[in-house]
Amino acid sequence: MAQAGEKARVIPGDFLPTFIIVTFLFSLWGFANDITNPMVAAFKNILLISNFESSLVQFAFYGGYCVMAIPASLFIKRFSYKTGILIGLVLYAAGCLLFIPSGYMMAFWAFLVSYFIMTCGLSFLETSANPYILSMGPEETSTRRLNFAQSFNPMGSIIGMLVARNFILARLDKADEATRKILQETTPEKFTAMQQHDLGVIIGPYAILGIVVLAVLIVFAIAKLAKCKGEDHKQIDFLGTLGRLVKNRRYLEGVAAQAFYIGAQIMCWTFIIQYAENELGMLKTKAQMYNMVAMGIFVSSRFVCTFLLKYFSPGGLLMSLAIGGAALQDGVIFI
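User: That's the sequence. What structure does it adopt?
Assistant: Structure tokens below.
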């Protein structure tokens, strides 16, 4: 704790090495999120499935978060932040590497299983890293510390978008859905060869990502991470904690706000490619550029808002941004 009159440091010196290595994880799951969004459109074209079926990619992806978040939090409470991170990296790498057999099987369900396992790992990582960052210093600077760490998340997202655009979307066969349907009926062997090629293009970046995650796993396995206050308290009171949270109005409002925010974000970034391609006649690669511009604004805004938190309350800033976002959405819809 800072003494009276002493300005509390956002990141205390003894936590700085741990803060740096844990913050890298924010970029790592940002990469996974945004290399995956364009895959909804890619799988629809490759496998000739409906928009609903292709959206199951996101259902599987975020299903991992939904299913694993609470078990991950209980696991981390019982053991440690570091153990939670290691389990998360193992599942993350396993999900990525499972793309290899999924591609050879040419089975959409296998890709969905791979995504689910991968995001079970991401759930462990986020459930570990977010509270870990919060606890790395004084409580009065915890919000700024977490927002600063989260500012590196969209950097990973931009790299994921670049990889999706240049190493996946740009390398897929240019045949449109109508052409593929004709090939499927007239020359099925050529259509199958095209599918195999395109699925091979998708497999490559995920396989490399799996290897990178394994390397990060080794780094965390040998690293000596700083322990935080309260980490040695292992007792779990799940029902008692849940009861306190349910009675906390601000917590419930925060959960509702987060649910709406994530829903809007994922649907916009998932279907912007289909919208641009089907309604505006754009190529997937050009549509992805618009996604990247949006992410660039997102990155810069994260750092700007972290700075503004020094002068504004989190609730007040959130309300202002929510009103601005709603106004911009209305403009897009009605203007």
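The longest helix spans residues 188-222.
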